[in-house]
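help with this:

***
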Amino acid sequence: MKAVCLFFELHQPLRLRRYRFFDIGNDHYYYDDYTNETILRKVSTDCYLPTNRILLDLIKKYNGQFRVSFSLTGVLMDQLETYAPEVLDSFREIAATGQAEFLAETYSHSLACMASKEEFIKQVNKHSETLERSLGIKPVSFRNTEMVYSDEIGSWVADMGFSAMLTEGAKHILGWRSPDYLYCNNINPKLKVLLRNFQLSDDIAFRFSNREWSEWPLTADKFASWMKKRGKDAELINLFIDYETFGEHQKAETGIFEFLETLPETIMKNTEYSFKTPSDVINEFQPVSAIKVPNPVSWADEERDLTAWLGNDLQDAAFNKLYSLAQRVERCHDKSISTDWKYLQVSDHFYYMCTKFFSDGTVHQYFNPYESPYDAFMNYMNVLSDFEIRLDSVCAEEPDNQEVIGLREKISQVEEELNERVTEIRKLRARIKSMTLSSTKASGSVTVKKTGEQVSIKTKTKKAAISKKK
């Protein structure tokens, strides 16, 4: 039997309000509540609720044959609790069927893995706890923010106890190999790695409504035939898709919902594939080999790297400034500081600063509240400046400048020199003591030359008299 793994990502950032220079130090609220609520309600109505309804019906209709997986960011769940609790209720209903798997990820949908292992682990743990509390699910599989993956990141995830991780089946990491098999982490083989089939996934996510596409219109029958053709050289096809594909990126009038409703039956009827979750896959398949990914990959843009978030000076400056505050935030126990720290790490803030255009430019404008990357940068840095002022007021910076570091180094050098002198003195004392004991066993005198001096030792019974002669 062959498997198809259908996975959906769900995320919405908390967008920042227009934060002016003169707000710094005066106004500590950073979020555009009106925009955030408006967008979330729109996406819930157009995408989340109708798509959840279709998937729930499919799960019930096929009685265990149709299985699906999700990843909901912590930032999204926070907003759903406030603005659209009915969406969370619909996900609880799906979770209760036992036919859906919910994956762990970073709570803030952040790039903490590129800055701080400790912060990364902290966010993953918080997200897992939130899933268990909100949906009654304890995740065993993992999907990092935007599918970011490397050998090292995968080894961290394995050490945290996860069994499977999802990432992009990028051409430059696969070479001649196919994404349609199960792989394992190159450092810790215990972690199984599922690779996204980007061609088939993007046929649905990006090309479905493109009338200039040679394969338009895409039907369930046509899609199933493509999967069947791949069957000779594949045992696992991973369709990893942004949930907002349904009803948001691809509007209802394009026929995307009808496509989703008919796809499972068409695949199960006309191909050898059955629907599995990541946990099912790693229990039923063996990895064909380790996959080597020395440098991070993602599912973004044509490059499949991190340049969508960390590709220019604006992004790097903002990112480095943010995480330079990490240790101080860790020492701070102020609730409002912790909350804002969580939301300021959302990767979308850096995505809005992207200066890439051409084929990827339209993607970067989706729900983008800024007129330019420079506006996004200035707004974010104003917010970060105010955040640092607040942090200073409750958790002052430790004096750890270069001067102090230099003094510490000098003190360390002096201590080493003193230790060396003490060792030499101890050796000399031990040598003199040894010579003294030897002389007591002999009669007469012995002469010992030591640094130009002569030491005459005479023994009388058990006492020795030592006289120095220049």
User: Anything to note?
Assistant: The chain has two domains: 2-394, 402-469. Residues 2-394 form a domain with the 7-stranded beta/alpha barrel fold (CATH 3.20.110.20). The radius of gyration is 32 Å. The first helix runs from residue 33 to 62.
